[in-house]
Amino acid sequence: MVEEVDSLEPLGDKELPQDDDLPRDDDQVEMVRCPHCGKLIYDETVKCPHCEQWIIDNPKNEYMRSKWFWPIIIATTLVMILLAMLARYRG
């Protein structure tokens, strides 16, 4: 439901931006282009609001998102469990 607002009445403080929300001269925000869609986004953006693609700037994150990361982790864990069971069986 939309509330009608009388243009002569001042808006409540909750309607106005707070001082912390307003940009300051010493608080310049750098804009960069999304590597996927090319639109301008904030430099510290994690996920593009336009194309909704993840912005990956850390090679470690890219490696963890590769299709082989989790299968390798699971296979390594299974091998370690099997070796531990074999050592217990022999000992």
What tags apply to this protein structure?
91 residues, mainly alpha, two-stranded antiparallel ribbon, 2 helices, 2 strands, 31% helix, elongated
Rg on CA atoms, Å: 26 Å
Oligomer: single chain
Fraction of residues in helices?
25-40%
Distance, first to last CA: 73 Å
Name the shape in a single word: elongated
Spatial strand sequence of the major β-sheet: 1-2
Low-confidence stretches: none
Largest sheet: 2 strands, antiparallel
Helix and strand content put the structural class at mainly alpha
Mean pLDDT: 76
Number of helices: 2
Percent strand: 5-15%
Order of helices and strands: EEHH
The beta-strand count equals 2
Provide structural commentary:
- The chain is mainly α and 91 residues long.
- It has a domain at 29-90.
- Helix content is 31%, strand content 7%.
- The protein contains two helices and two strands.
- The protein has a two-stranded antiparallel ribbon with strand order 1-2.
- The longest helix is centred in the C-terminal third of the chain and has 22 residues, at 69-90.
- The protein is elongated and about 70 Å long.
- The termini are far apart.
- The relative contact order is 0.07.
- The model has no long low-confidence stretch (mean pLDDT 76).
